[in-house]
Every structure is written in structure tokens, then in C-alpha cells.
Amino acid sequence: MPMERGKFIVFEGLDGSGKTTQAGLLARFFEFQGRGVVSTKEPTEESDAGKIIKKILVREETRSPKEFQELFAEDRKAHLNAVILPALEAGKIVISDRYFLSSIAFGSIGCDFEWLIGLNSGFPNPDITFILNVSPEHCIERIYAHKRDIKLFERPEALKKAWETYQKLPGRFPNVHIIDGERPIDPIFEEI
Ligand code: ADP
């Protein structure tokens, strides 16, 4: 019998929205069931494009907004081929912290929405995507409370634009669910 293809599950939302927390809980949930899980995230630091993205995020290099988004798409293509598709073919559950909806939400800070959708149109849709909906103000509070690095995307006005764009995405792509992320960790996980 051919091996069943795995499932591709994506968490989206602003930094501080709880993606890492919920992705970790979901990975453990499946592992307890004896399922093979691959946890991953974007942008990667493995591809050439991913290495440039990291330098741009720490402001060691600059690119135009469009060039920046093209780098994310290049990194995503490499990530799909190196990690995501092989794991799915091996029957694993792949849980990714960010995928192409991040490019559309954060890219909309400096690029046209439809151009971003076009740039990302060749990527396969996940089986399910959860957008953890936490307001920019609450994300900033959480990030400061835990003294995490403030990177390029975390300026308040930029976060607000990305947050607004996320709200538009469930209507444009299949199986995208907005989850109220402003509740305690357990009820959010129950719903997921
Ligand atoms: P992300 O991966 O989206 O940046 P994290 O999962 O790292 O978010 O969470 C950011 C911070 O908020 C962490 O310190 C985490 O413990 C905390 N956190 C996560 N989920 C919740 C929640 N539902 N309520 C309050 N704090 C949370």
C-alpha cells in the first residue's frame, strides 16, 4: 500500500501572538499519538536567500520592499524542496511557524497586496492554517515582557498594517482559520 501523505499545518500571526507556544503543544500532541512530526519555521537560515533576509532584519543590509519579498519567496521555495515536501512524502506531520501568508501580511507594509499574492501563487496550500489573532498592542506587551529582540517588523505602525492584512486572508485562501489568541494558552490549544 502506498504511504499516506502527511499533513501540512501552518501557524501565522504577529511576533508575540503565541505561534511558537501553540506549534509546540500541537507537535507534542501528535508525538504522543506516535505520529512523526517535523517542526520548522520561516524564514530559514539555511538557504542563500534566508541568510540575506537575516542580515536585512538586523539591518546589516538593505533591499527594496519588492526585492525583500522576492528573497522570502526564494527562501520558501528552498525550504519546501529541502524540508517540507520530503517530510510530507514520508508521511510526517509538518508544523511550520509562518509560511506564505506571512509574506502577504508583512509584505503589505511596503508592497501591493495583489502583487504579493501573485508572487506567492506557485506555493502549495497547507492542509490547514491558523492565524493567531492578537492585537499589535498586546503582542508588543508580550515581547517587551519577555525582553525579546525588537526586529524590523515590530514597529507598531508596521504591525498594525500586517495585522489588518491578516484579517483579509481567510476569504482568499482555503482552510485558513482566525483563532482568538488573546485567551489563556489552554483554551486556544483546545480549539486548535
Ligand atoms: P510567537 O512565536 O508568535 O512570537 P510565542 O509563542 O513565542 O509567540 O509567545 C510570545 C510570548 O507570549 C511568550 O513569552 C509566551 O510565553 C507568551 N504567550 C504565548 N501564548 C500566550 C497566551 N495565550 N497568553 C499570554 N501569553 C502568551
Describe this structure in words.
With 192 residues, this protein is an alpha/beta fold. The protein is 49% helix and 15% strand. It has helices spanning 19-32, 48-57, 65-89, 100-107, 113-119, 136-145, 156-168, 185-191, and strands at 7-13, 37-41, 93-97, 128-133, 176-180. A five-stranded parallel β-sheet has the order 2-3-1-4-5, sandwiched between helices. The protein is globular. It starts with 6 loop residues before the first strand and ends with a helix. Bound molecules: adenosine-5'-diphosphate. Residues 13, 15-21, 142, 146, 184-185, 188 line the site of adenosine-5'-diphosphate.
The number of strands is 5
Order of helices and strands: EHEHHEHHEHHEH
Residue-averaged pLDDT: 94
Beta-strand fraction estimate: 5-15%
| Overall form | globular
As residue ranges, the low-confidence spans are: none
What Rg is obtained from the alpha carbons, in whole angstroms?
16 Å
Cofactors, ions, other ligands = adenosine-5'-diphosphate
Task: Count helical runs.
Answer: 8
Highlighted features:
192 residues; alpha/beta; five-stranded parallel β-sheet; 15% strand; binds adenosine-5'-diphosphate
